[in-house]
Structure formats: C-alpha cells, structure tokens
Amino acid sequence: MTPRTKPPDAFSPGETPTFEVSARESLRDSQLRRNLGKATQTIRRKRAVAVEELPDWEELREAGRALKERTLRHLDTYLLQLEESVTRAGGVVHWARDADEANRIVAGIAKEKGADEVVKVKSIATDETKLNEHLESEGIHAFETDLAELIIQLAGENSSHILVPAIHKNRAEIRELFLRELDVEDLSDEPKDLTNAARLYLRKKFLNAKVGVSGANFAVAETGTISVVESEGNGRMCTTLPPVLVTLMGIEKIIPRWRDFEVFMQLLPRSSTAERMNPYTSFWTGVSGEAGDGPQEFHLVLLDNGRTDVLADEIGRQTLNCIRCSACLNVCPVYERTGGHAYNSVYPGPIGAILTPQLVGIGKPGPDSLPYASSLCGACYQVCPVKINIPEVLVHLRGRVVRHKQDGGTLRQRLDPENVAMQAMAKTFSDPKLYENAQGLARVGQWPFARGGKIGSLPGRLAGWTAVRDLKPVPKQSFREWWKEERG
Amino acid sequence: MATAKETILWRVRRATRDVPEGERPGDVPVERGYRKEGDGARAGTVDRFAAHVAEYEATVHRLSGDDLPDAVGKILEKRGLRRLVVPPGLPEGWVPGGVEVLRDDANARLSNGVLDASDGVLTGCALGIAQTGTIVLDAGPGQGRRALTLLPDYHLCVVREEQVVDLVPEAFARLEATVRDEGRAVTFISGPSATSDIELNRVEGVHGPRALEVLIVG
Ligand code: SF4
User: Considering the domain boundaries, does residue A114 fall inside one?
Assistant: First the structure.
C-alpha cells in the first residue's frame, strides 16, 4: 500500500477553517458523536477509578507540576545537560529550529542509510512537522505502526483523538479498508481478527526496516534516557529492531532526573488509559554497543517549532507541562460533541485549544478561533495530571487574539464589527458569570439576530458576541449547564 | 550564521528572561509529598503483585523454588511449545528437558528470524512492582537483549518473591544505578500488549508476545 497524505491542518501551509465552521460539520455526523460519546464516557469512568486508588494523587500532581516548572524555567541548562548525556551514551543530538529543519534531518539520516522505508511509532510531534509527507516527497515511505494510526493512514485521514485516533471509525469500515489495502483475502469484522491482520502485515515491516522513527514521552537530562509509553508493542518493535533509530521530540519533554519517573510514570498511565500501568514502557539510554541490544545508531532531534514562543508567555508557559495524556479531551463537553477534527490540529480538545494557537502564533483565523471553543467549565483543569490551568490560558489567549487585532490592524480593521465583537467577547468570557448570563440570554433572545457581521439589536455585550458567534442553533442546554447535570 | 543549537538556546534564554539571574534549578521548589515506600508487609506485597498481574489477562502461578523446573516443563507441554529461547545467564536448572533450546549468546546471537520462528521465551526479571502488576526487565542476567522478549509469541517470566517491591518509586530507586552507570535498557511489562483502537473493544496481543505467563517463586 502507499501511505496517503493526511488533510491539511493548522500546521500545514495555508489557512484552516474556524472551529465554528468545522464543528458545524462534525455535529452533523451522528455516527461520530455516538462513537465519541461511548468512548469518552468509558474512559472518564475508568480514569476516575484508577485515580481514586491512589491516596497520594494530589501530591503526585503537585510534584509533576513543580518538576515541569523547574525544567521550563531552566530549560537551557537542561537541554545542554541532555545533549551531553545522550552524547556520552553514544547517541547523536540534532537541533531543529522548525518543522522543516527537523524533517530534513530525519530524511537525511534515512537517505544516508539507503532506506526507502521507515517504520514509525505514533508521535504527535512528527504529525506536527508533517514528517510523513516530507519523507514521501523524498521518496521514503513512512509506515505508521500503531493500529489506529495504520487505520487512519490507510484511510488518508487525520487523527480525531490523541489516544484513540481512529475512534471515529467502526469495525465494518475498518474491515473494508483492510480488505482493500492490506492484501488479505478473507477477514471478519471481529476486532481480534482485524488486529491479527495488522500484526501479520506489520511484523514483516518491523523485521525488514533499516530505520525506526519515534517520538518521546520523556527524556532525562541527567542520564540521557528516553522513554516511550505504549500499549501495543509497536513502540518496542520500532525502538529495538531497526539498526538505526531516530527520535524526534519537542524541547519541553525533558525531565531532570531518572528518579522523576517515579512521579510521571504514575501520573501518565492512570490519566491516559486509566490503567495502573500501560502494557509496555521502553527506557533506553544511547546505544548498547557491545551487548548488541537494540539499534547500533541513535539520533535524537530536539525540536523548537514555536515552543520557545510558548515559553516566553508567562501565563501560556504552563501549556508546556503537558504530558499528552488526553484526560482533558475525555472530560470536555465541547470535545465530546464536536470530536477532534473540528479543531483542525494535531492537538485537539482543550489542550489543542491552547497549544495550537500558541505554537503557530496568534493572527491566523483558524487557530485564533480555538480559545473560544470552550465553555470554561474547568473540568480539564481538574483532571490535568500536571495541573495546567487550561481555563486561565484560554481566557488569556482570547485577550491576546483581541489585542493582536487591535495592535496589528488599521483603523478600519479596528472598527470592524468582528473586532469590536471580539473585544466584548473577551470581557464576557473572562467572567464566567457574564458568560452564563450571555448564553442564557442568547437562548431566550434568539440567536441569529446579528448575522452578516451587523451588530444587531441585542443589548450590551451580547450584541458583539452574536456578531461572530454564529454557531447555531444554540443548544437547548449550555455546555456548562449540561456538564453540571452530567456530574450531578 | 548562528547554528540551530545557538538559536534555540538564545530563544530559550530570551523566553525565560523573567527568571531571576541567580536562580538555580534547585531553587524552584518541588514538594515530594507522595508515598515513596509501602508499609513493608511482605506477604501482602506479593499477593497484591500476583493479583494485579492476573488482572491484565496474564496467567499467574505461585510455587516454591524446588518445583520450578517441573512447573516450567508442564506449562510448556500443555501449551505445546517446543522451540524455547533462553537468554544468557538463566539458571540451568530452570530449563526442562525435552524442549529444543535456542540459546542466545554474546558470541552467537540468535537472528531476528530465528526469534520470530521460535515458540516462546523463558526469562527471569529485574523486579516486580506490586502496586501496578508490572514486570521490569533490565537486560541483566537471565533476561537478555530486548528482542528476545519481543519477537517470540509467548513469554514465560520467573519472578522471585524477594524481587517484588511495593510501590512504583521503589522500582525507579532500585534501577537508578543500572541506568546511570551502565546505561542498560529497561522495559516495563504490565500484561500482554493490548489495543482498544477498534470501537474500544480490548484485544490482547497486538505486537510482542500475545501471551504472558508469570511464575512467582517463593
Ligand atoms: S493538558 Fe493536561 S490533561 Fe490535557 S493532555 Fe496535557 S497533561 Fe493531559
């Protein structure tokens, strides 16, 4: 099969639609909503049980947050320490200012080894840089080896969930896809059989690949140890079998010391898959040399690509604490209804709503709309294992979006109804009380008053809001009200 | 022209201008109020380990050391496994008669093809973690290279009771020296591999051994 190219998103060249426009499309897809509803509810329930089992959960969260704060405040020191440790252990460290530079480094290594195929374990960082597309353009096929990633790669689609990217596909669709693409004759739609078909297909790839590509969940500055946390075993395959391994990671993935795993390896599995521990975690330190254990060559690519801009914003900085557990997605009432595609980003849900606009920079209509894709109910903050105050960052970013329009714009743009509306919205959203009132009013007072950018006849702040929030129909219940009920 | 490394470090420093000049990493407080050790009741620890491993759909047996070779032989026979991979440093007495032993050796390494075509692998481990039902391999004696426990379709792992620690922090503490001084690879195994990618139905055994069986030896 030939890997298909995924549709463009916030990290591709060009513009993406706003959240409202895409959400409207997703809301029409009832299958998607059913799948998502089932998934998020199941994971939500299981996660609560897994977390309750630990009497020291809050202490772990606080330690996780503090360790990330320490790392980020002294990131220059830790980056240099990591480079030194990895080099000492026989690895090679590369630095990439942006996506393009990272992609060229990886492609360069693959070409040097004469590889026209690489096997990949799921990594959102490589999705962000569009590594697969770049490799393809250089004649190198990148094979995704996570079951879900394989499914969406075969289908030429984007992930809809950090953790279960193919959550929008049902078994019949997957069977059809495999029959068409995997060169199998006969296949039932039993998940067990479908999984086995993928196992057989990928085993050949693993055994023959010259180059493996991975992301990293953590990198230890002190020892140079990298870790990949996973369920399926394809991560172990990709990081063990090919003679050359390339790991691409964002510069924020560092943790100071080996012992700090004692915090993060408790926080991540329970928040993510709601398990005491995920099935497999690999920790490797450079290359093993004599012992012949794993790759003979290891490359670590350290990626900036906007992360230092996030770091520079004192309120936004905490966004870089994120360990990509996806707990915030599963509790988000907006995400549950719209699904991941509406965010037009490799980072969906609440974390995506704050990370995407900061990484790509304020001033693009699609990403700029994301901080508004929230009712500020605060559920994401409550579950976040590294205590990112997502509502705080959302409100802060709304302010930045509005200010950007003011500062950057001409007088006419500044008087543009949309901009006036954005300012009003920022005020409204910065105060949950005002927000609730506004939503209540909107329902009573009929929504589409101010279509076409006219500031309509609704009073006060709401006037501005309706001018751009053409997200009709207004749900009978606001997300916030719905959430209150849901949690009883 | 500045290198990528110089540029990124410059950006990081500019971005963290708010951090006071003299602040050291250690000055940023990290409260470690979480539990670092269990309460030390050994019997409970091993029971918990056994129960948690079993919850992952792994098969668990508990037995005394004298019975080990017999037990291994019976288990392999019951599953009809004949070609058994054995890592360097595995106690000779653990390997039952009547099976074809594929021995991995620093001078004669088994190829990936041979590992792939084998029936299973028998190993020891570095540690067990009761809190999470995790088996820890650190490529030490009796465990071998990572590929040995990855390519065969079946993994039989022997855990001695004294290897079981209670909490996750105890495991990372015990592994620290191996990683820091020798740089050996560490693998955490908590049940066989699994996926819930298809309609959230859990399927055991995607890649790696599809079956995991654990012998806890007292
Ligand atoms: S923001 Fe927090 S909850 Fe959301 S994915 Fe990141 S770590 Fe998990």
Answer: yes
pLDDT band at A456 (very low <50, low <70, confident <90, very high): very low
pTM of the entire structure?
0.88
Q: Name residues 18-47 of chain B within 8 A of A (Cβ).
A: 18-19, 23-25, 28-36
Query: Could you tell me if A402 and A457 lie in one domain?
Result: no
How many Cα atoms sit within 13 Å of A21 on the Cβ side? 9
Residues A266, A60: Cα–Cα separation, whole Å: 8
Cβ-Cβ contacts under 8 Å between A and B: the total is 256
Q: Which of A78, A126, A83 is nearest to A102 (CA)?
A: A126
Residue A347 and residue A124 in contact, taking contact as beta carbons nearer than 8 Å: yes
Tell me: do A446 and A387 sit in the same domain.
Answer: no
Rounded CA separation B29/A456 (Å): 52
CA of A322 to the centre of ligand 1 (A): 5
Which CATH number goes with the domain that contains A48? 3.40.50.10420
Cα(A75)–Cα(A79) distance, integer angstroms: 6
Mean pLDDT of A24-50: 83
Q: What is the helix (H) or strand (E) element at residue B10, kind and residue range?
A: helix B4-15
* pLDDT exceeds 70 at position A432: no
Q: Residue written as tokens 């990293």? A: A216
Identify the three-state secondary structure at position A254: strand
Residue ranges of A 24-63 with Cβ closer than 8 A to chain B: 35, 38-39, 42, 55-56, 59-60, 62-63
State whether A406 and A451 are in the same domain: no
Predicted ipTM > 0.95: yes
Please give the distance, rounded to the nearest whole angstrom, from the Cα atom of residue A321 to the centre of ligand 1. 8
User: Where do the structural domains in chain B lie, given as residue ranges?
Assistant: 40-217
Question: What is the overall mean pLDDT for chain A?
Answer: 84
Cα–Cα distances (Å) from A481 to A101, A435, A439, A486, B182, in that order, read 46, 12, 10, 9, 56
The answer to whether the CB of B127 falls within 8 A of the CB of B155 is no
pLDDT, tens digit, for every residue of B131-145?
999 999 999 999 999
pLDDT mean over A328-351: 91
Domain B40-217 has CATH 3.40.30.10: no
**pLDDT, average across residues A207-226:** 97
